[in-house]
User: Fold this.
Amino acid sequence: MKFYKYKILSVVGSLALSSLSFAHDFERADELFRTRGEGAAKATEARGVYAEAFKDKSLSLAERVYAVSQMSRLDLYKGAMAPNVSIEEKQKVFESCIANLDENLAQTKNQEYYYYYLACVALRGKHEDRNPLPWALKLKRVYKDALTSLTGQVPYEGGGIYRVLSGVKGNSRADALGLYDPEEAVKFAKKALETESTQVRPYPDALSGRDYHENFYYLGRAELGLAMKENDAGKAKQALKTIKDAMSNLDREMEEGLLPQGREPETNYYRREMKTTSDVISGCLKKEAQWKVCLIKELK
Assistant:
């Protein structure tokens, strides 16, 4: 049984997507990309087909950016969202993502490069227990350049750079490098939500920051981080409300078939994360004076 239904692709959406066609034929790769929700093996297979595109020496810059972006999307799905992937495999996935970006997109200094680089570096650091410092330093080195890449542009991937930086700024482990700032994390999450609609291949419809439901989740987590920093249970309750409201809105759109097509696996994943996080916050708040200690123990 499918988790939810999506609105039927409109003629307008089909035309918009076809207008983004390339000289290189990505049809088979795109078809496999749409099966990534079936598991890590499908994501790996699709990534391999996008990698084969680089055998075509006539690839335009736009085609190269697209191929790497799709490979990075698959890396993020496999390494962060797909079930039954070991820690060791996750580490390899994110290292491969970073290497691919550096080899093929570093010279562009565009949003795509910085968004996926920040995301893959942050997640690689998250899965490093022995010495996360090198990964944190990589984040710090590109922090300003990533923000500069947004100048005069609609933030890519539903405010992706803002979303990742919200997660970084809200992580207390980044305090040693001067990156920890929950107030800034909240601001970044709100900026991601404010992202205006834009058409991005391979998605059939123009998507805004509010269509990326994980932005609401990141806002709730940022608000929770601020509550913990200030030891304010009232703000923790507000964070819980933000996440619960996000779940209700997402569920309503599911029922009405209004969710955008193309990001079903990611949306499913964050719906589960919202539920898990809201349950943890609710349970910890019931411990009254020990709510913060509980959250530190329970939340990653």
In short: Residues 1-19 have pLDDT under 50 and may be disordered. Residues 221 and 239 are 7 Å apart (CA to CA). DSSP finds 13 helices and no strands in the chain. The two ends are 30 Å apart (CA to CA).
